[in-house]
Each structure stands twice: as C-alpha cells, then as structure tokens.
Amino acid sequence: MRRLIVMLVVLGTLVSAGSARAVVLPSGFTQTTQWSGLGNPTVIRFAPDGRVFIAGKSGVINVFDSLDDTTPTAFVDLRSKVHDYWDRGLLGMALDPNFTTGRPYVYVLYAYDKAPNSATQPRWGDTCPTPPGPTGDGCVISGRLSRLAANGTETVLIEDWCQQYPSHSLGSLDFGPDGQLYVSSGDGASFNWADYGQDGNPVNPCGDPPGTAGATPSASSSQGGALRSQAFRRPAGQAVALNGSILRVNPDTGAASSDNPAIGNADVNRRRIVAYGMRNPFRFTFRPGTGEIWSGDVGWNTYEEINRTQNLAQVRNYGWPCYEGTPKLGAYDSLNTTSCESLYTEGGATAPYFAYHHNEKVVPGETCTTGSSSISGLHFYTGGSFPAAYTDALFFSDYSRACIWVVYKGADGLPDMSTRETFAAKADGPVWLTQGPDGALYYADLLGGKVHRIAADNNAPTARITATPSEGVAPLSVTFDGTKSTDPESRPLTYAWDLDGDGAYDDAATARASYTYRSPGSVTARLRVTDTAGLSGTATQTITIGAPPTVTISAPTATTTWAVGDTITFIGSARNSAGATLAASRLTWSLSLRHCSRTDATVCHTHAIQDYAGVGSGSFVAPDHEYPSHLELSLTAVDAAGLTTTRTVRLDPRTADLTVRTEPAGLLASLGSETLVTPFTRTVLAKSQNSVGARSPQSLGGVPYTFSGWTGGPSSAGWVVAPASGGVTYTARFTAPTPTPTATPTPTATRTPTPTPTGTPTPTPTATPTATPTDTATPVPTETPEPPAPPVVLPDDVGPPLTPLPPPFEPPVVLPAPARATLLGAWAFDDRPAGAKRAPGRHGRALRLDGRNRFVVRPPRLDTFTLEAWVYATRPGTIAQRGSALRLSTSGGRVGTTSAPASLPRNRWTHVALTYDGTTVRVYRDGKLASSKRRAGAPPRSASELRFSGIIGRLDDIRLYAGALTPAQVATDRKTAVR
Hints:
Number of strands: 65
Keywords: Disulfide bond, Signal
CATH topology of the largest domain: Neuraminidase
Pfam families: GSDH (PF07995), Laminin_G_3 (PF13385), PKD_4 (PF18911)
InterPro entries: 6-blade_b-propeller_TolB-like, ConA-like_dom_sf, Glc/Sorbosone_DH, Ig-like_fold, LamG-like, PKD/Chitinase_dom, PKD_dom, PKD_dom_sf
CATH superfamily of the largest domain: TolB, C-terminal domain
Strand content: 35-45%
Number of domains: 4
Mean pLDDT: 88
Radius of gyration: 30 Å
Low-confidence stretches: 1-20, 742-817
CATH architecture of the largest domain: 6 Propeller
CATH class of the largest domain: Mainly Beta
Number of helices: 5
Protein name: PQQ-dependent sugar dehydrogenase
Structural class: mainly beta
Largest sheet: 8 strands, antiparallel
Shape: globular
C-alpha cells in the first residue's frame, strides 16, 4: 500500500499577488500541471533511475516512480525537526551525483526547530508565540545540513546558522561539477529595521562578537544581525558565522573541501565559505561547462541581484548589508559600523552581474508587475526539446512578480542581459526552476501545491476536455468530450481516459466517454491524446461529487483593525451538506500577511505566518512588517467525503505617520530601508518598530555637516516605535564647522569658467533675450559618488580588520571598470551670460527654454554617442535634435528611424540619457533603463547642429559623449553635477 503525505493547502507561503490565472508563454510553448496536492513544494530533483523527489516546506519528501506516476510515496517525514513557520522550512535538497551507483543519498537543508546551545527540541513547534514574537524579539533557531540514506536515516553534517527572525533563512543545495556540495543561507536578520543584533530577549541572542548573548552591542563595533553576512571578515579570534554565505563542503563530512581558498585558516567556518556578503541567496546554479556559481540574492526593498562567482580560488564579498545592488545602503551606512566603513574605505565588494530595481520592469513594456520583488529561481537550459536558441540560456524567476525570464547566451558564452525576454508571465508561484529528463522546464508552485511543466510544442497534439456536469450530488453521471483536441499537423488522434482518478488511462478509448460517480468526493479525470507519430498531450478536469460544507467566521470581522502587538481572537464553525456541525478536528485556520508595493498597493506577495489545525477558536498577536501590508485569516473545513470550503477575512491595520527632518533641512536621513532628502514622511503600521539613521558627515551647498544628535528619537539602539495613531517627528541635528576669522578679508574672486576640453563644441545661444535675475536654487546634499559596476575587486585579506589567509588563498584578479566614452562637452549653465535665460536648476542654475529660443552646439559626426540632461518640462516636446540622425523628446529617443519610447513626467526634474552603441538605442530615465530598441549601423549623416529647443521648461547639466556609456556610468553621471 502506498503511503502518501500531503498537506492541506489554504494559503501557501510567500503567496504571489493573484489567484489562479492563465500563464502567458511565447508562441510554441505550453504549460501543464505535472503533479498537484503537494502542500508547499520547494525543490524538485530528477534521479537517474527515473524517480522524482519533491521536497515540501513542512519537512516531507515525496517520491514519484516516473514522470507518468500520479501517486507518490513518502520518502521521509522530518516535520518534527523542521521549523515550518513564516519563510522557514525545508528549503534545500540535492541528490548525490552517484545516486544510482553506490551512493543513494539525499541531502537536505532545513530550519531546525532548536535554539543554539539548547537541548530542547522541538523548541517552538511550527509557531512563534508572543512573547518573544516573530518580528519583535524573534524565535531563535538554528539550521541543519543532513545526509539521508535510502531508508531515511539522517546523518547530520552541519548544525549551525543561528537565525533570530523568520525570513531569509536557509537556501539551496547543489553539487558542483567538482563533486563537492555547495550550500547557501540567508542572514536570518530583521526585515523591518537595520539590524546589528540590538534586539531580542536577551539582546544579541546569537552571541555575535565582540560581545556575548545578553550584552547590548554597539552599532560601531557589532558583528551581529545582518552584519553576520560579513562574518568572513571578522578579526582573528572572533568566531565566523555561516549566514549570508555560500559554502563548499565535503559531502561525506560537512567539513570544508580540501582545496577551498581559506582551507589553512584556523576557523572551521571560514574554511567552508567561498562567497559571502549576501542577504538571502535563496537559489543558485552552475553555468554548464564551468565551475561558476550563479546565485539570486533576494534584496531588502530596492534591488534583486544575480551574482556570478567565477573564480573559486578566491572568496568573493558581495557587499550586503553595506551595499544593495551597487549603491551603498543608507540604513546601514548611517550606523557607521566598522564592518561597512572599512569595506567602503578598502574596497573589496563585488558588484552583481545583473540587478533590477523593485520599481522598474525587468523587460521594458512587459506585463510583469513591479514593486514587490523576490528572485526565486535560476537555471541554465542545457538543450533538449526547446529550440536551439535556448541552449545555454539562463532562466530566472521572481516569486513576487509571478514571472520567469530568459537571457540568451552572448558571444562570450555568458548570458547577454541585453537579450533578456519575458518567458512566462503570470506564472504560478515559482520558487524552483529545473530541467527534466524530457527537456521540459519544471517549476515548483508554492502557492498551489503543484509542479508545473513548460514544454515546447514540437508538433505534439493538444488535449482538451469538456465535462457535463462537473459537479453535483451522488450518483453523478458525467459526459466527457475530447473532440476539441487538436493536432498541429491534422494527424488522426487516439484517446485514452482515466475517469476514476487512479492514474491509469484504462477507462475509455473513444473521443467521448461517460462515467457515473457514486461516492461523494473530488476526482481528477484525465485525457491523453496521441497522434500517429507517437506524440501525446494531456488534459485534466476536476469533478466534484456532493455539496461542500458551509463555513462561518464569527470573529474577527472585516471591520476589525489592528496595531502591532494587538491580540486578535478568532472564532468559526462549519456545517456539512446535511446541516450537521463539523467537529473542530475538521477545521484549519491559516494566518498570512500580505506585503504590498508602496507604489502600487494592488501588487502584493504573502508570507504564510501560521496554521492552527483542529480548533474552532483561538487568538494570535498581530505581527510587525513594512507598510503597506495587511493580514488575511482563512478558515478551511473538510467534510467526511473530503470536500472542502475556505472562507477568508481581510484585516487592515491602523497606521501612523513618521516624519524625519534634519537641521538644517535638505540633508539625507534614513527610515527603514529608505534614505531620502529631508524632510519626508512615511506611513507605517501603528506601534511598529522602525530604524532611523543619519549619515555623517555629509555636505550641503558646499558646507560639511556632522551629525550631533536626535530630537524626538531614536533610542541608542537605532530604532523607534511608531505611535498608536497620528504622527510623530524625528529631527536629526547637524553642526557645521565654525569659520576661521582672518585679519584682512580677501575680496571675493570672480568665478573662473570651467576649462573647455580640446575640441569641445562651443554652445551658441540662438535667441538673445535680456538676462533676468533668478532665485538661488535649493542646494542638494552631496556625497562621494557610488562606484560604477563592476567595482574593483580587492583581496579579502586587505587591511587590519581582516584575518590574513595563508596559501593557497590567491588574491583575485582586479576587474577594471569599462572604458569610459570621450566627453565632448558638459554645460552646467551656472554662469550669467548677457543673452541666454537662466532659472533655478537641478544643480545651481539652468537654461530656461520658452518654446522659441534654443541652445545649439556643433559636434563632429558621431557613429556612437551618449546625450544626457536634467529636464524640467512644463509642456512636452523635443528636448534635442540633430536633423534625421537623432532626437530626444519627452516621449523617448530616436536614432534614424528607430525609436525607443520612454515618457518623461511634467513639472519635476528628471535625468534622461539617450545612448547608441552601434547596435541598440537605449533611453535611461533617472539612471535606469526605460526602453531599448535594436538597430544596426551608424546614424544617418547630418550636417545639422545639435539643437536643444522645443519644450517649455528648463535644462541643466547637459553632457555629450563620443561613445555609449554603460548603465552604471549613466547612473553615476546622474549623481554627479557638472562642475
């Protein structure tokens, strides 16, 4: 008798934004559901003997005998050990490379329900009570890497990874081409504030140095919280943590592989690490034919990253939490921690191979949403049934955006990110991507408890079912019709039906069939059609026999609101179709938190917090999270026939407004994950905990300012608690140096004009209206510009704070920044000429255009170029044009007849750049790629000058280059004023 363990799915963990929807694929591809009823599947592995292993977040691993098997058996049940709570669970699984030749081992990576230095197990039991509270003090656990024998016997290889908070926990497992086992993990820190170990009961519960558990850490010296991701760089004598890292270990012992770069170091954990400085490298893979690790790092609230680790002779640092994407992360920069400040000074952080901003499309113009983001899968397609263009292409997925993308291989063999395309829009909760033995792409659907298969049609027939009726009371006679099935080459089809749901296609062999269902329940009927070439297609139809139960939620109601820490009581019941009350044992409550985008509150993802099984009532404490977010409480009832009904109530929070100011105004300050020019206000959950910080030093209007203290908060721990209602203001005070008096003041010198580079075209104002005085523009705080991507990679053993590593640790090769295009001219408009109009600018003063006047330059012919400007348009129109060669307007850019649309907003400053590298027209808006279009060849020849005219508004900081800038260089120019 087969033993199957499945979990009732009410609301899956990290549920994506929408309910069931039709996936959108390129022409020639189809998606089918391969398996369902799997609870919350996290990993899919195909064994060489044809079996398929599917790991569930709860700790159950089920096995299918083959791709055609529809009923799995349970391989192992680790639920008593796995902490299946929020984003924790069994998240990694791998099969030994010699699985069928003497080593039938399954390796698992899971959140272990046991606190470090404690003998109590299980510690929490798939919950986290308040106190300590999941987002308050945190339910502290550890992690486990284990090897399972064929009979399920567990051998623990590593037990470590202290985790205080319920997200970015453990990650993936995979074997490299070298036969070694690679392991990834997240930082286990707070996702609500800048965490350096300052909270908990006791504080610093993981005992991160330089203090101990219970000792209040100092922000400047602490190595705790998210800074565990920088543990590889801890000074000698401080124990190294494994969080936020990728390990390379011996699969028999869990010890560091013998040729790891840090193998000679005294610290056993440092020896294991081959990459670090990551927030949550949830998934990684290897590029075929190489030992390169390609990892997806789930960001905080700004960037998702794809990181490439191409040289395992070094240990690379990817910068978290000091950097997110390529910019410094203001919330941690403002803490002035030694870990980050030394990294900023010495260098050594490796930029991501590719990063996408949460508010930007991955592919311009696509239907995939923005805002909420979490990169959740990577896979290189090695060839098979897909068209040849997909061979060696990189597929990656984002769970929150519910999309899968493909990036084609470039001439150098690496993924060419400029070729990225949307492959699957409206995908169903992808948290794992892999390739099956049939050449299809498979992904785990955490929301639906399913595994989906995306296949190239390859001229296979398409099966279609209609069932009449599809539901009703027993006995239920159903007529099935498969005549709408089609074959692309019009070949004759044969039919095979599985009508009783046993997985065998032996119930009928005609185009139409009928079946009578006599017992209440739910049955999945299947049709398989086969053409004369032997190609097949399948379809399914759910038949419901009987009336499902009715569910009532008495409390809470939809009008219930909450603040962080509030206790909310729930009461509910259910009746079957005969009106009898169902026992509480047939009820399951599920509590989830929906976290939505600040820019589009309809785009959300869901964190499943906790299930309450077998109870009719209970209570929970409202958790903390970033706003906008709300709770969803669902009650599911299952009757004796297995029919289910789920009812859900949405619970909206109460909120408060936090205003951050500086003295003087206009300096930078941080609130949560954002760093903005003050003053600014953000809405947060009532009574939520939020980190607040201020960078120091920083400059405003050329004057340096040093932080001196707060008025109104925060505490010494660096965070504040929002009020129960209304608003509150926090003011960061800064001081400027006292001017040094001089005995004889020197007369103010006349400003010296900026020297013009050789060959720089001279701007010629065409209109000559009388100059008018203008108001002084509001100064903008300045900082050192962020380094372009990729930043220079420096050895990880540079500087006093780092532990020297003996051979065979090799300093990495320095990666030079891309050559910069030649600057032909830069115009700041800060002078006061007699003719051209001036107005307050983005930096200093700006050129004012009234629709009739113009600004003209005469550059040489440019086959490749970059044109940049800050634009403040009050009426749309042309910004710059050079005959038929190029045009930049408020609706996009054009080279020749090739247009790349990108609209600019009115009545605010926007940085815009138009580049052409000989193959692609690109338009950047505020430092981010807004649109691109391929074209070939040089722009049309034009004897015209380059004219800036047409719009009504202002232009500032115009730059013209011979050559195309990189995206990072455009972003750097946006942050740097023309001087």
